[in-house]
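worker-03 picked up job from queue 'complexes'. Input manifest follows; two sequence lines, order preserved.
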Amino acid sequence: MAAAAAASPPPAVELAGIDKRFGAVHANRAVDLAVGAGTIHGIVGENGAGKSTLMSILYGFYEADSGEIRVDGRPVRIRAPSDAIAAGIGMVHQHFMLVGAMTVLENVTLGAEGGRRLARGAAAARAELAALGAEYGLAVDPDAKVDDLPVGQQQRVEILKALVRGARTLVLDEPTAVLTPDETNRLFAMLRKMAAQGRTILFITHKLREIMALTDRVSVMRRGEMVATFATRDTSPAELAEAMVGRKVLLRVDKAKAAPGRAILEARDLTLRDRAGVARLDRVSLTLRAGEILGLAGVSGNGQTELLEVLSGMARPSSGSLAVGGRALTAAEFDPRRMRTLGVAHVPEDRLRHGLVASFEACESAMLGREGDRVFGGGMFVDRRAVVADCAAKMEDFDVRPRAPTLRSASFSGGNQQKLVLAREIGRDPDALLVGQPTRGVDIGAIEFIHRRIVTLRDRGKAILLVSNELDEIMSLSDRILVICGGRIVGERDPAATDERDLGLLMAGVTERAA
Amino acid sequence: MSVAARLPRWADVALLPAVTVASAFVVAGLVVLAIGQNPLEATRILLVGAFGSWEGLGYTLYYATSFMFAGLAVAVAFHAGLFNIGVDGQAYVAGLGALAVAHALGFLPAPLLATATVLAMAAVAAAYALVPAWLQAKRGSHVVITTIMLNYVASALMGWLLVRVFIEPGQMNAQTSRLPPGSDMPEFWRIASWLGADAPKTPLNLSILLAGLAGVGVWALLWRSRLGFRLRAFGANPAAAHYGGVSSTAITLQAMAISGALASGLAVNAILGQEHRLILDFTAGFGFVGIAVALMGRGHPAGIALAALLFGTLYQGGEELAFDMPSISRDMVVLIQGLVVLFAGAMENAFRGPLAAAIAGFGRAEPPAPTSVAAETRADG
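worker-03 finished. Artifact:
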């Protein structure tokens, strides 16, 4: 379908010679891209390859320094998202842009209220929502509050928002990051239906499996350039990975069998209630042993974040107990600094929110939470030279690029930021490492590196708790998998004896294997 | 989604403030022109008034000393993400510390008594700043609101105390009797006369050295100490600070206590340095100017020192200007200050983009330059 549709009529969206610089960073270099009407076109590339910049230019967040955008063959000037919407381009962001306290209908009409009186526009939108819902199997209750909807439904609201605004081309930025395998399948079915009816889909991801499963054509970006475009059926994940990184990549993790030792962390009936009294963690018990990688699988938002916070001392459980090295903690010991001194290191899920301070120099971020260590000097003051030297050593050890301890943390790419956080947390030789989303937003080359370091750490007899939304990552790294759903541990699996479907059912809350 | 333009460090530190100040002066000049006066002449009078004589210079530096303390106080809190608008009130109540300790320990020899008095004033101001800090940390009351309101509380309290309680017997003005001379921060003209030299009588006193020390101390605190690291981390990213083990309660209390203690320097300069007694409203609103000074100085002690000097110049030169050009009143000086605050604080980002573009343009004109300018942009912007 792809090749045929793209041939005769002008492409639905065409980018020609798009060039964009941010100071020293040449984010897009003369990028050309043509997307045929009614096709699903994937864009892959490492973090910082320029995918997001390119889509931001298409959607009007930035203006290109040079180059042209053509929609259905006509040149258009897109200077703001409103221009993009007018040109029939809609975008579904990775982080939803929804007002949680408002209803679905209100969110859909927001910014497109249709006149001074709300009622008329709302009625029209309601009718359109019903029509779109029927057409694509996109049904969402228009009067439900967005906050009350599961993530998959919230994403539908985002898609509906774009469609109601008349989008004929839909850009989706990493749309599956928050979805269960089942929800992903449903999303893909929806997208295929839309493409079949003539809408054009631009699908940005770093998951090669999704590219292979969904797209008609795929373009690969590397260092701001569009390096290759393939018809999906003529390419392979290995070829795509190589095009993305510019060299051969090992997509599999090699590791020996685990030799679990003594229990490092023992959680018994940990319960954490939020302010509303809802149990975010519900009687969670687990034992983390030396020399094993325990994977925690689950759809994001099912208690993984809370579990990491309790185990790292950032939050105090409402009830339950936690023992470190065989000794139960007192309530006062649920403190991040205390947990560190007890040998529990923590790579937080969201490195920009928790892992480092974006405006700090890298060497400052590299001592966050460790600033009391004697290596940085005794007494009240820190020895600046020691701080820089320590950071330089970490950068060398973890191949952080560029090796610039005084560069702002925000100036590093996601993968290099993550390596820096990992270096900091592994650096003090912890007994246990809690690691959340170790490779989120991290490029393929760095993923390989980070996985290797985690396995090495395990082989040195450390206990590792791995929390990840990437099932592939959980399955390939873990020695044992726990599945969490609704704040409860709903099952344990041996990675060798399970598959994606089995885990997916558990993650979705189906507790027993069907037959 | 728009990204803030990144400037090379030198431009961020020197060029941008220079441009904003120049713009403020241009607009102020237009106003002077509008009321029928010659702006160049006005500028000349202002500068000569501030720097043209030893006496003028003495006053300029005296004012700058107060502004420096106020600016440092605001900046320290600001680095912890706290907007301390209560510097004026904190400095005002610091006077009570002077009153108590200078009288109670009046038997001490001069340098010791002065030191003890300074410390007592810092302690009282810090304690007063801890009230809004505690309210924010424990009760969630926003520190901006509470510090503003506590200025009024301080003003009412001090007014009542000065009129009803501590007023010098037989005195019509709301002022206390003279503090024991041992608590004085010696003026420079007095020091000169001890050395047998003759200097014009200005209120410039040893507090200026204290301000300099405070500036170095603040720098060392913020960028070289563990406490400062935690404080900045908390200000820049509270979630990351929590992850790092920083207690939000403790750091809020510590930052505000330090801020309050620095605010007391304003009172040291005015009371121990000049008045030698408590008078009504001796802080003269300098605490509020501290906000502008801290903004202009970009939160760095060196920048704050320069901004304090600028405001000292405006204050002293403005007095002369009001005297020499009767059609330009004191309000005109306040107007210029207002414009500086507007341009430095609010309009800064309006200048940032064009400046960055201009610099980038220069960089591209000559082939070897882009990498160096660009590297700097990334490193510091």
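worker-03 released lock.
The interface with chain A takes residues 1-3, 6, 220, 224-227, 229-230, 232-233, 236-237, 239-245, 356, 360, 370-371, 374-375, 377-381 of chain B (CB under 8 Å).
Residues 68-299 of chain B form one domain.
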